[in-house]
Write a structure and sequence with these properties.
Length: 200
């Protein structure tokens, strides 16, 4: 898998976590990736249906679970990450409130306009095809629904986060791809994340 941000296939266990190294990478991400600040930008309202693309070990799912969302869904291509992310939520999965599936940004497997909000963190830079991913996010977001796309960076990046941040010209491509399909595109700089928000 070669991400659109690179000329070479991604080999890191953080990009596509597999096996023991992938699980260790997942545990590391759970400890280090900051996600809670995103909730303020996402503003989940009672009864909403939320999709997370690339949930990884499930750091954001743990926060979403405490919101008044009616349905919290996710797609990620890594079975190891699905196990890790699903672990703390067995009861809510059985009750149908949380639904974590295997899937990718360009093929989520969900119906048209199925979600009030779609969020993706530290993930967009790994997609093989930026445009195909954006098309799919647009398809599954209901008219008037919100999209948030976040990547390492922001106004107070840690040394690790700074190393992982995308160059400005690639951030500009993300913003352009959003503007091509969504309205109200804006950019926010959280302490450790650069976040693009838009409305379908
Ligand atoms: C760096 S981790 C980030 C996980 C989590 N969002 C976080 O911030 O802690 C990247 C995740 O993206 C997933 N991923 C890789 N390619 C993907 C794709 N094409 N579509 C969706 N997710 C993908 C990986 O399996 C991995 O779980």
């Amino acid at each position: 898998m070669t991400p659109w941000t690179s000329d070479e296939p991604a080999r890191s266990p953080f990009a596509l976590p597999r096996g023991v190294r992938g699980r260790l990478a997942g545990l590391f991400m759970l400890c280090t990736n900051r996600q809670r600040d995103l909730l303020g930008l996402l503003g989940v309202r009672a009864g909403e249906r939320i999709l997370e693309v690339g949930y990884g070990p499930g750091g954001l799912i743990r926060h979403l679970r405490r919101t008044p969302a009616r349905l919290i869904c996710g797609v990620d291509p890594s079975p190891e990450m699905r196990d890790l992310a699903a672990g703390p939520h067995r009861a809510q999965i059985a009750a149908g409130r949380i639904d974590l599936r295997i899937g990718t940004a360009d093929r989520t497997g969900f119906a048209d306009a199925a979600f009030d909000a779609v969020v993706s963190v530290n993930n967009v830079g790994l997609w093989p095809d930026l445009e195909a991913g954006m098309r799919e996010l647009h398809r599954v977001t209901r008219p008037g629904g919100r999209v948030l796309i976040a990547w390492h960076g922001g106004r107070r990046p840690s040394p690790l986060t700074r190393r992982l941040s995308l160059p400005e010209h690639q951030l500009a491509r993300v913003e352009r791809a959003l503007r091509d399909r969504f309205s109200g595109v804006r950019r926010d700089e959280l302490p450790g994340l650069t976040v693009f928000g838009a409305v379908r």
